[in-house]
Structures are given as structure tokens and as C-alpha cells.
Amino acid sequence: AQSVTQLGSHVSVSEGALVLLRCNYSSSVPPYLFWYVQYPNQGLQLLLKYTTGATLVKGINGFEAEFKKSETSFHLTKPSAHMSDAAEYFCAVSDDNDMRFGAGTRLTVKP
Amino acid sequence: EAGVAQSPRYKIIEKRQSVAFWCNPISGHATLYWYQQILGQGPKLLIQFQNNGVVDDSQLPKDRFSAERLKGVDSTLKIQPAKLEDSAVYLCASSLMTGSNEKLFFGSGTQLSVL
Questions:
Q1: For B18, B63, B97, B104, which has the most beta carbons within 10 A of its beta carbon?
Q2: Beta carbons of B80 and B70 less than 8 angstroms apart
Q3: Model confidence over A73-95: pLDDT tens digits?
């Protein structure tokens, strides 16, 4: 069965700084990988997903993630953080049957 | 486009009481999911419906949890009787079809507190 590990339950960056949220997965089959964001008092929203093809995936709000099979990673990045990026971010992996979520990383953006 | 609707937004009950949550998915979405999100953890799938049939309920505690999706549209999730450890946010999600690469649309959730 697949699983997801998000390194760091809480990440704090300054406004304008690089955002890096780490995600490692395990899967017995080629995975589909997702990043979801959850703003306070809202449901989860899809940021981006990797299915096949290009390993660098661009999502909404300037986020992107790179699938690295050799490292079993799918880290999320954004070159310059905005205050509005403060939220909880969840990495998820899916195989033919099931989507499993990581425990989440709370991103704080300091002025 | 209207999103996934859930109600109530909050619910507080005492242990051993019963509670029910309601979900209305996006129109035309065949697949509906119920997730449990305990504070500090990621969402955990409880049950997945394809139309009105159950696809996966392997992680549903069937001694106390039940769910139905009559007519393949709205769904209800019930807990009877509730335990303290059931305190969580219950998220409903829907997708156009079942598939590993399908995007899920989530509702805002129902926050349950069991006292």
C-alpha cells in the first residue's frame, strides 16, 4: 500500500522568500501525486498533480512541484512567498484504488 | 459552479449520542468520498461511493459508522454511538468519475466535537 511522509509539520518563511515543502512517498506502482491546500475554515483545494509525462508540474498561485522517482519525492516550491500563501498543505499519493494523504505542513508567512 | 455542500458546519454532542452529517456533491459527479480528518493529521478515507454503490469502505468502523448514498446524489454519514475519539472534521469530496488521477473537490467539512 502506498504512503506519504511530509517532513516538517510547520514551516515558517518571510514574505518574498522561497517556499519549500517536502513530500516523500512510497508506492508499489507508478504513483499519481497531488498537492492540496487548505485555507482556514475552507475545504481542501487542488494545487497541482502529477500523473505522467513532464516531471516538473506547475500549479495555481505560482506553486510547482517536481517528481523525482529516484528520490521518491514530490517537493512543493514557490519562488516568492505571499502572505496569502499561509495555509495547511497536504501531499497525497494515489494508485488504482485509493488516495492517501500526508499529515500536512502548516505554512506561516512572516511580514 | 456550485461546490460540494456539507451540513452542519459544526456539531457538539456527548459521547454515546448519535449524529448525522449530510453532503451534496457537485452536480454530475459520480464519485463521492467521506474523509475523517483528526486534528494534526491528514484526511483518512472512510468510504467511497460510485453512484449509489460502495467502492471502498475498508477503513470505515462499521460497528458505529454507517453511510448511504440513495439515488446516487446526496449522502449521509452517521455515527451511533459516538466516542470521544470520533472528534474530528468530516470532509465530503466528489469527483467526476473514479480514477487514480481524478481531481477531488472538497466541501468545507463538518467539525464534530464529542464531549
A1: B104
A2: no
A3: 999 999 999 999 999 999 999 87
